[in-house]
């Protein structure tokens, strides 16, 4: 397994948010992390990256225990994060946002620009002046510039117009086809499921269901994901 | 007043401005990037001056002294960052002020302990001795022109470093979202140590260069520190461009004020009183200017864009 998360628990101060999450991502696999709002998807991702280090359980990346490693070490070991809310650096240009994250590897400015031509067109523009969709492209490009082994996208297309969403999903499919491992959170099941090999569902801070996309029947969806 | 005198004083003002810029650049970078108020920045200026004077006295070379001032101030900066400063980033400004004030006392007593209470003197290197003729006929010291040139070089270097290099991009990225730049694999703690050492080295350079114009003594950094704070408040905290403009403004206004105000006041007072009142008024001039600028632009001339 590339990523192996086992029984992690995490808290915000005194209030516990995760009560035992298990999930795994194999090399080259795309896994969807699902669950209704507030069930712990973002917290799980932050725990994996040691932004909110888990207080119990273990996270392993390609066999390396991430326990106690600062988040920059986790990133260097191969996790590229596209965070909820995108969090581009507003005071840097598009080009600088990408350059600031760069680490040696096959992903370069040229490749990111080829993946997202809109970023190339706006390379000298300040990130704060980009549309939401462009910011998401930038956040993905920025994560790719770190040359990750695993790409994690939290809310991959949240708040974006349908046309832009299609562009983002097309890019994600392309990345998957190239063999990149992906862990992705998104609310639009019809777009998420065709990309995902497997799904993990969280409820109240616990992983309560795992299976292939085909196994995620309407019943399961009603039970765990319906509103 | 002659044109020659005015030009000379203008150059003196520029030279003071350059010096203040070297101090203010580090101060504003450290405040802008790490949110830290560092009162000990003047101590690093003093470290640079003492290192230069001591090494120049031992080796006979001002240039080795200059290298030593950069190295010692950067090292002193890195050490206090690792030991003390990095514990202060997440604390309130009052804690930062108290702790860095304690550092001033430690640096001052430590320096007195090593070098004694007598000032050291530093000679201008032979290469930069002498004067050049200014248009208008006055003679102006080469060394002071060299300080202005050094300041211009540092300003250019900082512009390239912060604006064009990957390190600079990461520093600016950390300014707006520290957690995110860490999550992308940048070791923000090390980055902060580097920024702090860089600011310290610039303060040390300023101290060393001024050391050849004034005596090198304990406590020499604090008056400059106060002016440097005026500079970064005027320029906009966190902005290197603001620090440059603010420093030149403060340097020139202060120097020209001391020249012009007493003369201006002879229109209203007898000469002896005009001199005294003028001098007193001139020493307040930059604070008045600061108040006026803040009245119009409360966050300084170039407020940092993200704040
Ligand atoms: N910064 C925070 N402080 C305290 N509680 C939080 C914080 N962020 C999230 N939580 C709580 O943790 C739980 C999981 O939230 P989150 O991981 O953001 O869910 P999701 O991403 O699945 O919508 C929720 O109950 C939420 O209220
Ligand atoms: Mg979330």
TrEMBL record, chain A:
Keywords: Amino-acid transport, ATP-binding, Nucleotide-binding, Transport. One of its GO terms (biological process) is L-amino acid transport. One of its GO terms (molecular function) is ATP hydrolysis activity. The keyword Transport applies. InterPro entries: AAA+_ATPase, ABC_transporter-like_ATP-bd, ABC_transporter-like_CS, BCAA_Transport_ATP-bd_LivF, P-loop_NTPase. PROSITE patterns: ABC_TRANSPORTER_1 (PS00211), ABC_TRANSPORTER_2 (PS50893). Residues 3-227 form the ABC transporter domain. Pfam families: ABC_tran (PF00005). Belongs to the ABC transporter superfamily. This is ABC transporter ATP-binding protein. It comes from Pseudorhizobium pelagicum.
Automatic annotation (TrEMBL), chain B:
GO terms for molecular function: transmembrane transporter activity. It holds the Pfam family BPD_transp_2. The chain crosses the membrane at residues 16-37, 44-60, 66-85, 97-122, 142-162, 190-213, 225-253, 274-296. Keywords: Amino-acid transport, Cell membrane, Membrane, Transmembrane, Transmembrane helix, Transport. One of its GO terms (biological process) is amino acid transport. GO terms for cellular component: plasma membrane. It is a multi-pass membrane protein. It is found in: Cell membrane. The keyword Hydrolase does not apply. Belongs to the binding-protein-dependent transport system permease family. LivHM subfamily. This is ABC transporter permease. It comes from Pseudorhizobium pelagicum. The lineage of its organism: Bacteria, Pseudomonadati, Pseudomonadota, Alphaproteobacteria, Hyphomicrobiales.
């Amino acid at each position: 397994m590339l990523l192996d998360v086992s029984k992690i628990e995490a808290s915000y101060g005194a209030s516990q948010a995760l009560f035992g999450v298990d999930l795994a991502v194999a090399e080259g696999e795309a896994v969807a992390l699902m669950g209704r709002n507030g069930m712990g998807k973002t917290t799980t991702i932050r725990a994996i990256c040691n932004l909110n280090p888990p207080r119990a359980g273990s996270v392993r990346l390609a066999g390396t225990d991430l326990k106690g490693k600062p988040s920059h070490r986790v990133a260097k070991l191969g996790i590229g994060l596209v965070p909820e809310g995108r969090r581009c650096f507003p005071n840097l240009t598009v080009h600088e946002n990408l350059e600031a994250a760069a680490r040696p590897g096959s992903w370069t400015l040229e490749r990111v620009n080829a993946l997202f031509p809109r970023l190339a067109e706006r390379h000298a523009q300040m990130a704060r002046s980009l549309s939401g969709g462009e910011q998401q492209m930038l956040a993905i490009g920025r994560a790719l510039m770190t040359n990750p082994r695993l790409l994690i996208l939290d809310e991959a297309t949240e708040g974006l117009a349908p046309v832009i969403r299609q562009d983002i999903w097309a890019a994600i499919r392309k990345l998957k086809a190239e063999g990149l491992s992906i862990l992705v959170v998104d609310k639009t099941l019809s777009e998420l499921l065709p990309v995902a090999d497997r799904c993990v569902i969280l409820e109240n801070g616990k992983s309560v269901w795992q299976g292939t996309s085909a196994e995620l029947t309407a019943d399961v969806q009603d039970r765990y994901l319906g509103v | 007043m002659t044109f020659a005198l005015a030009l000379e004083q203008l150059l003196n003002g520029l030279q003071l401005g350059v010096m203040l810029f070297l101090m203010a650049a580090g101060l504003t970078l450290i405040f802008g990037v790490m949110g830290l108020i560092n009162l000990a920045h003047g101590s690093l200026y003093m470290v640079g001056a003492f290192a230069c004077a001591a090494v120049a006295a031992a080796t006979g070379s001002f240039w080795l002294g200059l290298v030593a001032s950069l190295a010692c101030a950067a090292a002193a900066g890195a050490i206090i960052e690792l030991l003390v400063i990095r514990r202060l980033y997440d604390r309130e400004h009052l804690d930062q002020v108290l702790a860095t004030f304690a550092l001033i006392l430690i640096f001052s007593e430590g320096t007195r302990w090593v070098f004694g209470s007598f000032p050291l003197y530093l000679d201008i290197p032979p290469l930069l001795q002498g004067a050049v003729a200014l248009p208008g006929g006055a003679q102006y010291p080469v060394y002071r022109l060299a300080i202005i040139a050094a300041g211009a070089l540092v300003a250019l270097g900082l512009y390239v470093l912060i604006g064009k290099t990957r390190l600079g991009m990461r520093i600016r990225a950390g300014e707006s979202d520290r957690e995110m730049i860490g999550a992308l694999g940048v070791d923000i703690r090390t980055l902060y140590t580097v920024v702090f050492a860089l600011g310290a080295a610039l303060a040390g350079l300023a101290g060393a260069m001024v050391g050849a114009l004034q005596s090198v003594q304990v406590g020499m950094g604090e008056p400059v520190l106060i002016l440097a704070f005026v500079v970064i408040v005027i320029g906009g905290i966190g902005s290197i461009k603001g620090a440059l403009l603010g420093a030149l403004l403060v340097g020139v206004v202060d120097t020209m004020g001391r020249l012009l105000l007493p003369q201006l006041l002879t229109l209203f007072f007898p000469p002896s009183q005009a001199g005294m009142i003028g001098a007193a008024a001139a020493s307040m001039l930059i604070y008045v200017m600061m108040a006026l600028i803040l009245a119009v632009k409360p966050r300084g001339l170039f407020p940092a864009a993200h704040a």
